[in-house]
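User: I want to check something. If I give you two sequences, will you return the structure for each one separately, not as a complex?

Assistant: Yes, each is folded on its own. Here is the first sequence with its structure:
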Amino acid sequence: MKKCLIVLDVQRGLTIQRDVSATVSKIESVMATFERKNWPIVFTKHVDEQDEESSLYRGKADYLEIVVDTKQHLVLEKNKPSAFSNSKLEKWLCDQQVEHVFIVGFNMEYCCLFTAITAEHEGFKVTLIEDASGTVNTEETYEMEGLDIPDFIGSILNWSGCIEVLYTDEFSEVYSQGVEK
């Protein structure tokens, strides 16, 4: 089963909002595994066309920059939470004969969640790597004391029975060693 990593919105405009270095490090670790295996990687870049106050507004080019090395990999722009809102993504995945997508990036409760659900709906096997998917939002953002956003969203997706949710160490154990489920 051909695999692909979708790296969502690891952009300066998000990553400067709070310390997300641990998540970015885990994203880079997953990327390194995909590169070692010669499995394709695709990046998305969220671009806000409307809200000039947004940290991802098109006019703030330095904030749109992806903060991990995209190397020669495809980078697609999107302006909605799901990466599949850019129709080029599904076509590219089909052209690459991808059947299983892995999702990492930002923000867990928007882009990661919507991309995972859409990918599953479009017929892909989906694995979300929870600790390589973060958010710049906090429990205060949602006025929900004690809320761990990545854990909450990861639990919902896992409980759905439709989407595999792993941590990076589980991903490494299952997919780096060649012993796949």
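And separately, the second sequence with its own structure:
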Amino acid sequence: MSLLKDWRLIFSLILAHVLLYVTFSDRDIFWYIYTAANLFFISFAIISEPIDDKQRTRSYLKYGVLSGLVLYALFFIGHWLLPYLPFDWDRQVASIYNRYAPEFSWHYIVLILVFIPGEELFWRGFVQKRLSLYFNDLVAIVAASLLFASIFIYSGNFIWMAASFAAGLFWGALYVWKRSIPMLIISHLVFDLLLIILLPLS
């Protein structure tokens, strides 16, 4: 089967863009629609592909926590360098926190239980895995990361797209290395807890 005939992949990517377009169309519905989008991501990924889990619990916990800390450290360094870059990236970062940071208890619940698993199951466990059927691992990582970043174009915030692409490359490479979706979820969880809740960069 060729990539252009992979209707599951093409349909899911089109629907992802439709859902994210609606998600960012109104700040007041962001948490509702992105929750629905990630429930779709989880369901579609589970139906379409077996969940890779080739690491023992102790191993994926260790690498998940360590990789989450490493990625946060890289973002921390990147944020420290923003004032030295030619564009006003600091203002874009601040606008993301101001507009989309969790406010209510249910926001934190869906962030942990829906957003994080949904993104990893779909973008790495389905999209990247599917792309690896047609391309080598490096191309699949880059392509999946670009596709992941592309859905945030509707936020109107370039730094969000750039951050998603960078994180996608990191988690994509980690997925190829360890083939463990639970490890990626732990890594993403540690990263988001630091970035959004414990030590935000704005």
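Because they were folded independently, the notes below concern the second chain alone. The chain has one domain: 3-198. The radius of gyration is 16 Å.
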